[in-house]
Amino acid sequence: MSETSQLVGHARESFGKGAARKLRAAGQTPAVVYGHGSDPIHVSVDTHPLSLIIRHANALIELDIAGKKQLVLVKDVQKDPVRQIIEHIDLIVIQQGETVEVEVRVHVTGESFSGTNALQELNSLHLSAPAASIPDSVEVSVEGLEEGAQIHAGDIALPEGATLLGDPQQLVVNIVVPRGAAEDEDETAEAAE
Predict the structure, then answer these.
(1) List of E strands, the chain
(2) By the 8 A CB rule, do 170 and 153 touch?
(3) CA separation for the pair 142, 180 (Å, rounded)
(4) Which of 76-85, 106-115, 161-170, 178-187 is least confident?
(5) 177/82 Cα distance (integer angstroms)
(6) 192 phi and psi, to 5 degrees?
């Protein structure tokens, strides 16, 4: 489960590229906080702690704006494609007990049957999960699975409170024998005859 990080938001009065550039030069990142029918709030946050927080998918942040704390979720991060500097971030206000739509990473564990490979066809699942307990990832075990075995999105055990929003028939993991290995076995069998 993701931990809640702390950030302080400073109200922004000036907007535009020049103002954003000045903020970034001062170690701040422009941000907009959206949520629950209220007007968007323009703030800036310290870039260094923000960059550590966004390394984790679906990061929950307790944002303090002028002493008023609210729980927010990172919705969108815009980065400079060359320098990888965070240029802007969108945050969405969430309430305790609310569910949110998130992409959660699929983590494959275990070893499939000897001579087979587990091909991961899908890297993340689209889930609805409680905002306060968004899973970091979902695990899929391929332990001992043989050639031809398939794991679909609907087969994966999800954390409590989470529901799958994507297609349950979507292929996540496919167990195959590498093409070269099957041909080698055929040649070995022919040579033995």
Answers:
(1) 4-11, 28-35, 38-46, 60-65, 68-79, 86-93, 99-109, 117-120, 124-130, 137-141, 150-152, 163-164, 171-176
(2) yes
(3) 22
(4) 178-187
(5) 39
(6) -65, -35
- Strands of 163-164's sheet, edge to edge? 137-141, 99-109, 124-130, 163-164
Pair type for strands 163-164 and 137-141: unpaired
Give the bridge partners for 74, in sequence order. 91
27's tokens: 């170690």
Yes or no: say if 161 and 145 are a contact pair by the CB < 8 Å rule.
no
Q: 55 in helix, strand or coil?
A: coil
Q: What is the pLDDT of residues 129-159, one digit of tens each?
A: 888 778 888 999 999 999 999 999 999 999 8
Residue corresponding to tokens 């979720």: 73
